[in-house]
Amino acid sequence: xxxxxxxxxxxxxxxxxxxxxxxxxxxxxxxxxxxxxxxxxxxxxxxxxxxxxxxxxxxxxxxxxxxxxxxxxxxxxxxxxxxxxxxxxxxxxxxxxxxxxxxxxxxxxxxxxxxxxxxxxxxxxxxxxxxxxxxxxxxxxxxxxxxxxxxxxxxxxxxxxxxxxxxxxxxxxxxxxxxxxxxxxxxxxxxxxxxxxxxxxxxxxxxxxxxxxxxxxxxxxxxxxxxxxxxxxxxxxxxxxxxxxxxxxxxxxxxxxxxxxxxxxxxxxxxxxxxxxxxxxxxxxxxxxxxxxxxxxxxxxxxxxxxxxxxxxxxxxxxxxxxxxxx
Length: 327
Prior knowledge:
Blueprint (H helix, E strand, L loop, with lengths): L5 E12 L9 E12 L3 E5 L6 H8 L7 E6 L2 E2 L3 H4 L2 E4 L11 H11 L4 H14 L15 H12 L6 E5 L7 H16 L3 E6 L2 H7 L2 E6 L2 E7 H8 L2 E8 L7 H6 L2 E5 L2 E6 L5 H10 L3 E9 L2 H5 L12 H5 L4
Parallel strand pairs: 3-8, 3-9, 6-7, 7-8
Antiparallel strand pairs: 1-2, 1-4, 4-5, 9-10, 11-13, 11-14, 12-13
Helix pairs in contact: 3-4, 5-6
């Protein structure tokens, strides 16, 4: 039997919705979207709200029919009944039966997945251990925090031991602790040989854990590839230099190449557009009797490349940077 290389293959996917109003053009949610997710990888599908992420997930799960194009999961067309047995899914806003305990909730979904009664109990124990909810197994879901609900939702998606796990915005609304817990869970799934495809608009999480990403905007794929390769395309890396007893504003040379200068008392912060200028500035600081306090490079992020924000002013720079109290 030939091994399936790709977990998801999407080709020229288009989805158009009727506007519902006379005279208004139809709404195009997806426009010729194509991407591939390889087996055993974590693939981040990212873009702002309304970019078409959830529509794509619904189509590949067979919940919505595409206007045109194709979507294949594990070598079979999207919506194939046999394929669904191998896919776990956590929607963005799942509904939970509040008065069920964690154990009862997973038992219910185990039965829906067609597991034998003898399989369900050990499977529940293993999953509660995996998501860190062993102590809450007899607690009703209405008493769970947002982070705990996300983790029990992940356990539900894994109850039938799927090959492919699809998550829609799994970290939305979580505090930093909850986000870390979910990130660790996703990494553990890859370690167990699972393929994880998740949508999100939280870019730092994507940069931390994904093997590859796809960036979507207004229903179109802007880029796809390994995170480090996409970041390398940006060719940008600013550098913040903090020094003492040196006034950069008094130097016409520094003003000509620095992108930002902020003077506060004896200390000065200078932002350079790239690392090539660091030696030049450090030399001038020393020649003028100043003292170098810190050099902090800032690599380009996916947000810088695909979702640029307005340029910051010097008033946006926190005073901790100037005082040297950087975390």
